[in-house]
Specification:
Layout: E1 25-33, H1 37-46, H2 54-58, H3 60-72, E2 97-102, E3 106-113, E4 122-123, H4 127-130, E5 139-149, E6 155-165, H5 168-205, H6 209-217, H7 238-252
Antiparallel strand pairs: 1-6, 2-3, 3-4, 3-5, 5-6
Amino acid sequence: MTRPTFSSGTDSSMLIDRYVPDYDVTAIRHAVVDADPETTYEAMLDADLLDTGPIVRALGALRNAPMAIARRTRGPPGASPPERLRFADVPETDEWTLLDEARGEEFVFGAVGTFWRPAIEWRRVGADEFSAFDEPGYAKLAIGLSVRPYGEGRTLLSYEARTATTDDRARRNFRRYWRVIGPFAGYLMSRALECIAADAEASASRRPPETKAETASGTEDGPRGRSNGPARGRGVVAAVALLAAAAYHVAIRP
C-alpha cells in the first residue's frame, strides 16, 4: 500500500535529493533482483510498460495511455497505439525535463504542473531552475529510478516519486488528488519493478558463466558497472507517471 510521507529534507546521496529535497508526498518501491546492476539497468530501460498484468490491462486508462503519449510527442493524428512501449521508447516531452543521470546507476526526471486538473497546465522548468521554482499554484514532481549492488550478483532496484507543492492551495488540491490516485500509482510502480526484475533475471540467466562473473566483479569504471552506452534513459519514467495520470482522469475521476 502506498502511504504518503511528509518530510522536511533528507541527508541521503540520491540524485533526486538535489532537486526535491523538501516534499509533501513521496511514493517509494523497491525490488531485489537476482542480476547484476548493469544487467538490471539495461532491463529497466527495455521494460515493456504495456505488459504489466491483466489488472492494469483491464483499465480503460491503460488502453488510452499510448494515444495520450503519442499526442504529447506530436505524433501524426490517428496513429495506431504501439503494441509495445518500453521505458527507453518514451522520449523527453515538452513537459518533462531530464534533471540528472548517473549512467548505469540512476536517473531523475521532473515536471511542473497542475496535476489535479482534468487538463494539466504544464510549466517548462529547466534542471537548473527546478529546485528553486516556487511560483504559486503548481506542484513539482520528480521521479527517479536507481540500481545499487545488493550482495554478489544481485541488485536493489528502487523507484521513487516525490511531489512538492508551491503554496497552500496547491497543496490541498494535490492531497485530494493523491488520495484517489496514490494506491493505483503505487500498484503501477510495483508492477513495473516486477517486470524489470523478471527481464533482468532472464537476461542474466542467458549469459555464459564467465560473463556473469566479469559483470558482477565490475570493470575499471568501478564495481557498479557504469554503462558506457548512449543515454537512453530520457523520458523513461515519465511513461509510468502518464499512465497513472491517465488512469485517474479517464477511469477513476469520471
